[in-house]
Design brief:
By secondary structure, the chain is of the alpha/beta class. It is built from ten helices and 13 strands.
Length: 280
């Protein structure tokens, strides 16, 4: 599947400090013309300068809705495989029968529809209005149209908060993770999936890596994502990576070998963390 991306338009941009350590010393990452810099203090990779969040939302329009509907079955399969990788069934067993699941960046709601079928109280958040309205109208789902911060859910509302390929699109990932913590019930779980900037594909392809696109504000490595969630009040329970080589870049037998090795040796192109909210 091709990654959805729109080239930067005329959005306002601003210079920012490192969202992880507050540092202000950077070097260009993967090429002099790169959009991305790497913090010299903590290693976080991000666009700098970068657009303001309110204007980025406009990129997720009818074109994005079409992309999501064309690929939603594949995306659901990948999300469920990711949940299996971090043993989400064990999480389900640890929670009471009445339990709530929030998916942020839920698109048309395929994942929360599946969770609803399994007895969860479902809630979605999606900035793409056509996608959210499709999920509401066609699937009878509860989806808030807007950002997580705009939803203003009461504290302690959810047992599980999930986001897949979302955090890299945000301009304030620390504020986002802190808001996730606020709305989680005591001992609640946070599941986050994002590209892995220290994976094999990132190192192999460099400036041509498929995740180096205009729509990605941040590119996390395993240690920078771990630091972000731990600094924000979570402990990491389990983590996995997957994806050795992209489809079409090598013969299938070699791809399958690299895929198995990537998961076993933890150098995959995508990573997932299962985190738990620490006690106050």
């Amino acid at each position: 599947m091709k990654t959805f991306s729109k080239e930067a338009g005329n959005e306002r941009v601003r210079e920012i400090a490192c969202a992880l350590c507050g540092g202000s010393a950077f070097r260009r990452w993967n090429g002099r013309e790169s959009l991305f810099v790497k913090c010299r203090d903590c290693g976080l990779i991000f666009q700098n300068p970068q657009p303001v969040q309110t204007e980025l939302v406009d990129r997720y329009d009818e074109e994005y809705f079409k992309y999501e509907t064309e690929n939603e079955k594949q995306f659901l399969d990948l999300m469920e495989l990711g949940l299996a990788d971090v043993d989400f069934k064990a999480v389900e067993k640890s929670l009471p029968a009445k339990r709530s699941f929030l998916d942020i960046g839920c698109a048309t709601g395929m994942l929360i529809a599946r969770m609803k079928e399994r007895g969860w109280h479902e809630q979605g958040v999606e900035v793409c209005r056509p996608a959210a309205e499709f999920g509401i109208r066609e699937r009878g789902l509860q989806i808030f149209v807007g950002t997580l911060e705009e939803a203003r859910f009461p504290g302690g509302s959810f047992d599980v908060v999930h986001c897949s390929h979302l955090i890299e699109h945000l301009t304030n990932p620390r504020g986002f993770v802190e808001e996730v913590r606020r709305i989680l019930a005591p001992g609640g779980y946070f599941v986050v999936t994002t590209p892995n900037a220290d994976g094999f594909q990132a190192r192999l392809f460099g400036a041509e890596w498929r995740s180096m696109i205009d729509d990605h504000m941040y590119l996390f490595a395993r240690r920078t994502l771990r630091r972000l969630v731990e600094d924000s009040g979570f402990c990491v329970l389990r983590g996995k990576t997957w994806g050795g080589l992209a489809v079409g870049t090598t013969p299938k037998p070699i791809k399958h070998l690299f895929d198995r090795m990537a998961k076993r040796l933890n150098f995959g192109d995508v990573m997932i963390y299962l985190c738990q909210k620490k006690e106050e």
